[in-house]
Amino acid sequence: MTLGQNHSLVNTRIDQRKRMTLVLAITLSLMVLEIVVALFSKSLALLADAGHMLTDIGALTLGLIAIWFAGKPPTAGKTYGYYRSEILAGSINAFLLVAVSIFIISSAWQRLSDPPVIAPMPVLLVAILALIVNLVCLRLLSSKGEANINLKAASLEMFSDALASIGVIFSSLIIFFFRWYQADALVSLFIGFFILGRTWNLLSECTNILMEGTPPHVDLESLRSSVLKVPNVIGIHDMHVWTITSGLDAMSAHILVNKEANQDKVLDMVTEVLYDRFNLNHTTIQIEQASCEKDACS
Q1: Which of 9, 64, 130, 268 registers the highest number of CB atoms within 10 A of its CB?
Q2: 3-210 domain in CATH 3.40.50.300?
Q3: 34 and 50 in contact (C-beta within 8 Å)?
């Protein structure tokens, strides 16, 4: 990684930390309000939303800790530094979301047959406030969230919260006008299943990174073909592409070249192709010169 790229990454993480800290303070305040109103009104949907916000707080806290760890310099024992801490935090966030989803679904299922009497107006007012706050927080996170696992996790949770708030608004309106208290449990079921489905992609992405799988946006066959088109390159093997952390992919390979080839020039051209076409700026290439004894250089 070049000095300029490292400086840019540092500035990005500072911006991420500021955004996440602000969203954390807002979310914590709203969660306390939702718990108080949910207990007063006996609304499971609002309590479910508050429980989801608790995972938001955990996600944001873990994300902030991960950003702090990721900013630490590499050591002899951690030559890549602590970049992977972000992926670990994202994985924990995903598992927390799954646990909360299961709890919401289980509680809602039990309430379908015996729903409690719910006071709809306090729930409605808090749900409207929660929707506004969630949209503001989503706006703060989403513009920078696509390239970072933790911001993506936080953005996903804020989006889920916003949808949950809309559901709570509808259920409270139904209860207010029709006194159909099962609406609260049905909305809670919808929230639980929605969170569970949305979390799967995040968990899959984190798992793929931890298993050092090939990034989804990198086509290995296309990469291989592009390298083989470089003049004097006649083969490539032991090729691996993986993600170190969000926005930082790495690649290693052995490149076989003609005996007469200028190795430094070939290395420069291969490196340029990898960066320009596949955005791979952390590469380890070993050049191997072919023997012409078996027409390998023809």
Answers
A1: 130
A2: no
A3: yes
- Residue at token pair 């984190």: 206
Please report, in tens digits, the pLDDT of each residue of the chain (298 residues total): 444 445 555 556 677 778 888 888 998 999 899 899 988 888 888 887 787 777 778 777 777 776 777 667 777 777 767 777 778 877 887 887 788 788 888 888 988 888 888 888 998 999 999 999 988 888 887 655 445 666 776 777 778 778 778 888 999 999 999 999 899 889 888 878 877 877 787 788 888 888 889 998 899 999 999 999 999 999 999 999 998 877 788 999 999 999 888 999 999 999 999 999 998 988 999 999 877 544 444 4
Q: How many CA atoms lie within 13 A of 39 on its CB side?
A: 6
CATH class of 220-289: alpha beta
Amino acid, single-letter form, for residue 118: I
Find, among 30, 19, 89, the residue nearest to 54 by Cα.
30
Which of 183, 142, 118, 181 has its CA nearest to residue 20? 142
Task: Give the C-alpha separation, 163 to 171, whole Å.
Answer: 12
The domain segmentation of the chain, as residue ranges, is: 3-210, 220-289
Separation between Cα atoms, residue 57 and residue 29, nearest integer Å: 10
On the 0-12 / 13-18 / 19+ scale of CB atoms within 10 A, 74 is exposed
| pTM of the shown model | 0.66
